[in-house]
Structure formats: structure tokens, C-alpha cells
Fold O-fucosyltransferase family protein.
Amino acid sequence: MAELRHSTSSLGTRNSSSPMKREEDSSPLIPDHRPIDDDDDDHDRHASRYRSFFSNLHSHIPDDVRVLLLNNNKKISLCLLFFAVLVSVIFLSSIFSQWNAPYLCKKDGIVLNCPRVKEPPSLWENPYSATTSWKPCAKRRDGISDVPPENGTTGYIFIHAEGGLNQQRIADDVRIVRDIPEWFTDKSELFSSIRRTVKNIPKYAPAQFYIDNVLPRIKEKKIMALKPFVDRLGYDNVPPEINRLRCRVNYHALKFLPEIEQMSDLLASRMRNRTGGTNPYMALHLRFEKGMVGLSFCDFVGTREEKAKMAEYRKKEWPRRFKNGTHLWQLALQKRKEGRCPLEPGEVAVILRAMGYPKETQIYVASGQVYGGQNRMAPLRNMFPNLVTKEELAAKEELDHFRKHVTSLAALDFLVCLKSDVFVMTHGGNFAKLIIGARRYMGHRQKSIKPDKGLMSKSFGDPYMGWANFVEDVVVVHQTRTGLPEETFPNYDLWENPLTPCMCRA
């Protein structure tokens, strides 16, 4: 109370010019609890002196100078306001572009970085945002024809359909002349004469090479054969419309024979209904035939007798590579470290289990005769007993028609793998690349798992790695190896990743 009485008595003796203080003075309900001392009196005297100094200075400034200062202040304020608006627009546009940016994984060295998603991970599907960012755009637009009329053509290219799958597909949107034109009288010359063959075409040649070296020959001779024909045209050194045409032919024009399409639909339907209801299924392309094992020159688990027989087989089939056999052990170790060896069935089983696939998973196996037979397949069958092939899904009579051509059986495997919920490859090759590329072109929703064989070889060879650490490595590494939208890079494979030339932002 003494402090309150002291402050109220002091208020009457002080004359303040501060609006805040005037409000406090006029309100009897707000007492001033701040003690007043000599320092406050000194502060007030100094403040009053400064205010009088600036008021006198302001009165001596000419009016035109004051107007000029006022205008400059307005200009500075407008500049600051414009700068703030510009920064805000840039900031908001960057946020908007990030929200609307397509889902795209980008490479940083050998690491593939993918956008983060809020969706919980799924064993059977890629993130939804990955499927809504891109759409196919290689299909021919209505009313636009790229094929010249018969009488306007420059000439014909005579080719052999190389590879089993290509022999089982027919063209629906590309003009293919199945018979040699009637005006070409010396038909036997086409098969025997070197004069009608363009040879020594370099691998992955640019488009200009064909314009300079092949087109003149076609114009001159009208019909020419190209040898060799596979992988002769590059991917990243040709115009974009050429790569788009490739995708149009591969994904829209070429169709499998109707009987192959129908049988593959039947096999896929049986896979989805093996449990009595609708169930997802996995397709496993197991590359572990004797020829593949021998050609790889990798070392695999086996008895001394098996290894001796494999050495004799390699020496017979590939004598130049085998030489005396002394260098093969070091070569095998190097290839396994680099991830260039086929995965064994047991290794595939461990990887799938580490990814989280349960024992009840329905798996369709696309494979030839597995090297080592049932003993080699035992670890995979023990961990995933619901393992079937087309021979187990279909009756013998249903497949007899397709046994006439081995390529027909391969085509059935191709389509059942293509229609699966999850596709898993165990080694390279055009079969697996074409499936992964087609599944990406269809929308990236379906998972296409490409195991990191190099990393897996290190993990399998580490005797001190526990199961928990192994599972963590497998899950983390393969989060981005499931057929997600991935940017292309120099010397990329168009058939495995058709994103840039053949797909557009959705």
C-alpha cells in the first residue's frame, strides 16, 4: 500500500506526453506498479530533449525536400512490396510444382532415389501415386498415318524374325508384306545373292548411319536384307519419334496369335482361383537351366561330381572361353561380386521370404528344365509349396497343340508372367526385359522385382549376418527395384524402361 500511495501521489506531479501514459493516468482501475526513481526522471528529461531537437530539425527542412523524401520512401516501400510478392510467387509456385510433379525416381550414381509416399507399403502393388503420373502415348493418333501407300514406298527390307517370341506375334498396325511383290521376278536371288544384303552394321548405330549407308541401297535395289539385324539401331542417338515408333510396334501393333492369347488367359485365371476365391499370384522367371549355368561360368553349390561334369560341359561348348580352366575360379568370384550370376532357387526363396511374402503365396514358375532337378528346387518348394508350372495348371491335351513349337510354350509363359500381380526376374535376358518394360508401359502399378544380385552375393557370403539385418538390407535395397517410373540415362534399354520416349505426363 505504501508503494501504491507513493505512485499515485507522484502521478499528479508528472506531466507525460506519451499516449500510453495518458491512458494509464486517466484510468483509476489500472494502478502504476512501477516504482519511480531519479533514473526515470533523468530518462524523461533526455527524451524530452531529443523530441524537441527533432521537432526543431523537422521545422527547418524545406517543403520540397520533405516531399522528395516522402516520394522516395513510397518508392522504396513499393520496391520492397514488389520484391516480397515476387518471392512469395516463386515460393508458392515451387510448392505447387512439387505437389504436381510426376512420380519419378532419379539416379545418384548407382543409387536410385524415389519420392516418398504416405501410403503403407504393399507386397502386391506399387504406390498409387506412381501409377497416376504417367500414361502411354505411343499409340497412333486417329487420322494420322505413318505408312506410305504401296506405290509411294522407297523399298522393302527383308528380315528374319529372330527370337521365339517374335515368331509368335502378328502385326495389327504395321504394314508387313508377307509375300514378295509380284514385280520382283528373281526371287531366288534374294536368298542367295550377297548383292542384296547390307552387312557389317555396327551395334547400336545412329539413325544417320542408315540414312547414309542403307537407304541408298534400298532405293537402288528395292529389296534389301540387313545382317545382322538384332540391336543394330541405337536408343539414345536417334530421333524421339523413332523410339516412339518402336513402342507403337511393340506394345500396340504386334499381337500374339489368338490361340496363345486364349490359353494364357485360361492359365492366368486358374492361377487367380487356386485358393477357391480370387487371390493374387506371383510369376517367377527362373533362369537356371543347364545352358544358362554353363554359359555364366559362375560357381554354384554342388558335389565334386557335378562340378566336374559342368567343367567338361563348358570345355565342350565354349572351348575358347574355357581354355585350360585355371582362370575360371577367379572369374567366377568376380562375376558373383558384380551380380552377373543367375540366382539359385534357394537364394530366390530366401530373398522372397525376407521381402515379406508368406508361405501361402501362389507362384507361377516360368522356366526350362532346372539344372539339378528336384534336389535343386527343394529349398524353394519347401519355403513356397504353392509353386506351379503350366504343365501342372493345364491338362496334357490342352498343351499338346503348343508343343509343336517350343516358341509357343515360351509365349504362354510370357503372357502369364505379364498378367501376374508381381513379376520376379532372377537373371537378365530379353524375356524378362520385355515383361518389365511392358508392365511399366501399362502403368507401373504392377510390381516387377529385379533383385540386386551383387548386394545379395555379399549378404549370402557373410557368415556373421543375422536374419534381422539381412531382412532390413533386402527390404531397403529393393524398395526402388519394383518397376517404378525411372528416368532414362545414356545407353539405357528402351525395352526395359520405355518412360521418356513412349510415355507422357498424365
